[in-house]
Hints:
This protein is of the alpha/beta class. Helices cover 53% and strands 19% of the residues. It has seven helices and seven strands, in the order βαβααβαββαββαα. Mean pLDDT is 76; it is low at 7-11 and 87-105.
Amino acid sequence: MYEIKNSQGTGDAIDGLLNSILEISQSHKNEKRAFAFALFVYDFHDPHIDKILNDENYYNALDYLSGSTMTVFYINSEYLSHQSQKAMESNRVRMEFGVQKVDGPVNVSPKFIAEKLINKETLPSPSVLFFNVSNNVISDFTIAQLRENEIEKGFIELLSLIEEAVNSLKSVKEGYRDNETEIFNLLKSSIESSEFWKNTRSGFQKLVKIKDFLFFWKV
C-alpha cells in the first residue's frame, strides 16, 4: 500500500500527483517490487472507502495482502482537504495575458484523479483501477467496480478483490518478469472474469426478485 502525500502531509498539485504515481510505479517495477499497480477510486459520496483506509486494522490487512506482488495506491484524506481548500480560495477572476480566466473549485476526489490518470471521462465509484506502466506511461488497465456501501461489507469486498488480483500473479516466476504484457493479461483476465460473474449474479438476483413480485400478484 502506498500513501500519496508529501513530507508536509498535504500532497502535490494534481499534475504533480499524477506524475508521482507514474514515477513511483515505474520505480517499483524497475526495482522488482511489483508486477502491477492499483488505485482506489471513489467520490465524495462514497465516504465508507475513506473510512476503511483510515482504519489501521483494515489498512494493515490490505497492506499485508498486496505484499511485494502489487503496489496499491490510495490518496491521503488530508491531501483532499488541502486541495479542496486551495480550490475554494482560488475561486476568483484573474487577468492573465489579456485573457479573462476564471478559477473555480475543482473535483480533487480519487475518482477525478483516476480519470485524469487514464484519460477516461467517467469511472464507476467506488471501484479499483488496476494498471500497468511502461516508460512512465500507463500501458494497460482494467477497472473493477465495488458494490457494497457499508464499511464491513465494503472491506470484505475490497479485500477479496485485491486477493483475486494478487493470486493471479503468484505463479509468475522471476525469470518471466520482462513479459509485461502477458503478466498483466493474467491479472486483467482474472479481474474481468470476476466482474462478469458478479454482473451475472447481480442480474440473476434482480430477475428472481421480479419473478417473486409477479408471483405475489398472481396469487
